[in-house]
Design goal:
Blueprint lengths: L11 E5 L4 H16 L3 E5 L12 E3 L10 H4 L8 H14 L2 H8 L6 E5 L3 H10 L3 E5 L9 H21 L17 E3 L14 E3 L23 E5 L11 H8 L5 E5 L15 E4 L4 H4 L5 E4 L3 H9 L4 E3 L6 H11 L2 E3 L6 H10 L1 H17 L1 H15 L1
Parallel strand pairs: 1-2, 1-4, 2-3, 4-5, 5-6, 6-7, 8-9, 8-11, 9-10, 11-12, 12-13
């Protein structure tokens, strides 16, 4: 699907992404689409994910970090668990690097900014230069139940406004929502997954993704003719004890074949596994989910959207940050069930397998996600903003 497109002159577009896997991959999908249309795209992201964007001009991320080792650069984040760690993540990683991001971006010229909604520096640079900008919401839109919204009045607004002052801008109310473009918010997801009304500038595009690689593990043929349960913790919260090990223990001896991905950690992190379990560091979701019957996840938005696009129902045991909001969306949509803790996962899988309504809702949402158009429609919307401004 694509919007009706009219000619737009090539522009120099600054595209910014936080150096997290769940942010860089969807932003890279949009970048490739804009480059294919003849635009001069300049990318601002961390060194770890620059390769995703291909042969384009890249700006250095001066306060760089490895998303798999956040505590090495930001000690207060610790293991990433609990309210204090979440606040440290916002304060030190997101807000604390914002002014430096803006300085990085202001080192070059641009006609338009397209920014991951948590890469605050690029939005501030656009405001300073008075050029149009578009937000890409790669994680769920902020709602009244989110951590930042709840803390906005007493904590987040002063924190964000200190960052704005450091970048040379005046204060704004609304914390995170103040960093949504007033002109265009390109949102991953579909309206049926939103629990609340969205601002008028929001446009849903389904899922932003690039074509998968063809790499599969040597045991790939073991999936043939089997019920498959996929277990993933994504690429940020990768402690094997959080969800992977409880799922392996709960599903040992189950009729299903259990496929665990470690988010980049060596498969050996799980130690010896039962005969019905297979482990890999990473398998492209678009390959694995086509052969999956149920996915167990900690609620990463990209993974959940991938599962729903493939019509796969879910068991969600939410992790930190935005993941409780993702779990809420899954529960309200009927496409799966939510567990507060990783207990009785075997019973949860059996419940999802035995109740067709979960798969039916997942398939319906999958049709909506595919129809929303992905990167092609996102690029149409960006080009429409260029024409309007």
């Amino acid at each position: 699907m694509s919007l009706v497109s009219h000619h737009v002159d090539p522009a120099r577009i600054l595209l910014a992404s936080l150096p997290f896997a769940g942010h860089a991959h969807p932003m890279a999908a949009l970048s490739h689409e804009l480059v294919a249309r003849g635009h001069d795209v300049v990318v601002h992201t961390g060194a770890k994910y620059r390769h995703l964007f291909g042969d384009v001009e890249q700006l250095p991320w001066s306060r760089d970090f490895d998303d798999a080792r956040l505590a090495e650069t930001f000690p207060a984040v610790g293991d990433g668990k609990g309210v204090r760690a979440n606040l440290a993540n916002v304060r030190d990683v997101l807000v604390g690097t914002g002014a430096a991001q803006a300085r990085d971006v202001l080192a070059t010229e641009f006609d338009l900014v397209v920014t991951d909604h948590l890469a605050f520096g690029a939005a501030m640079a656009a405001e300073l230069r008075q050029v149009p900008w578009a937000t890409v919401a790669v994680t769920p839109l902020v709602t009244s139940g989110s951590l930042l919204r709840a803390l906005s009045t007493f904590t987040a607004d002063p924190m964000f406004n200190r960052m704005r002052a450091e970048a040379g801008l005046g204060p704004k109310a609304g914390a995170l929502e103040a960093f949504y473009s007033p002109d265009l918010v390109v949102a991953q997801g579909v309206p049926a997954l939103e629990p609340a009304r969205t601002p008028p500038q929001v446009r849903f595009v389904g899922r932003l993704t690039t074509p998968p690689s063809a790499a599969t593990p040597e045991w790939w043929g073991d999936l043939d003719g089997r019920t498959v349960v996929h277990v993933t913790q994504g690429t940020l919260e990768t402690g094997a004890g959080d969800l992977l090990r409880p799922a392996v223990e709960a599903l040992a001896g189950h009729d299903a074949l259990v496929v665990c991905t470690t988010g980049g950690a060596p498969p050996e992190v799980l130690g010896p596994v039962p005969d019905n379990v297979r482990v890999a560091a990473f398998i492209p979701h678009d390959l694995l989910l086509a052969r999956t019957d149920v996915m167990i996840t900690n609620g990463g938005w990209g993974g959940v959207l991938a599962a729903l696009e493939a019509g796969v129902p879910l068991v969600v045991v939410p992790g930190a940050l935005d993941k409780p909001q993702v779990a809420r969306r899954v529960a309200q949509s009927g496409a799966g069930i939510v567990k507060k803790r990783p207990t009785d996962l075997g019973k949860a899988v059996d419940r999802v397998l035995s109740e067709p309504r979960h798969r039916e809702r997942a398939r319906a949402l999958g049709r909506d996600i595919r129809a929303a158009g992905g990167a092609a429609v996102a690029a149409d919307l960006v080009e429409d903003l260029l024409r309007r401004r």
